[in-house]
Amino acid sequence: MDDTVEVIATRLDVRSEAVRARGAVLSDEERQRARRFAFDRDRQRFIIARGLLRELLAARLGVRPEAVGLEYGVYGKPVLAPRFAASGLRFNVSHCDDVAVYAFSSAGDIGVDVEAVRPMPDADDLAARFFSGRENAAYLALDPRERALGFFQCWTRKEAFIKALGHGMYHPLDRFDVSLAPGEPAELLRVERSPGDRRRWGMMGFFPAPGFVAAAVAEQSGNLFVGDTR
What we know:
The chain is an alpha+beta fold. It is 32% helix and 27% strand. The chain has two domains: 12-96, CATH 3.90.470.20; 112-229, CATH 3.90.470.20. Strand 9 and strand 10 (212-219) form a beta hairpin. The longest helix has 22 residues, at 40-61. It is globular and about 50 Å long. The two termini are 27 Å apart. The model has no long low-confidence stretch (mean pLDDT 91).
């Protein structure tokens, strides 16, 4: 089985013609979901992100984008409908502002997350509350000028891991540790009372666009991550 993990980063083009084209391939449920957004910008970004996801999945499944069937797991993670189970394809998507990141794997579960790196007045409090003890100590040891990047590297890596598990924020965040220091490799350092151990997972940290940081976590430690920026 091919254990390559594809990671694609792109800007969300919200020109009216792009929104119309991508909106044409959405399901009725997705169109209803788009209409619930209060702001046009958020609605347009959802339409573009979801339409592009359908196009990327369709290219890998050999079907039309509008024929791709999507369902949601217990904790809200999108998955392919059962009729596509034989493909073995797993995917995940995340977007922040106008940057979207997609990840695909045929070797096992996968998760991805992206965030804009920005000053957070309550970052220290959030780190103390949501990071593990080991992560919080590593975060506090950073030079203050590196803390914003360290915070979001930790956040995206933790989010990508729990998305790969399919548990969302229901998974206790103190039961695993990730690396976070700028310049150090992205790694899953410890997993406690979780399906499989840390050797089951591969992790990748990357910068999908200026001012943004992202992470992907994929099942099976031998994964080869390959990227594409559009």
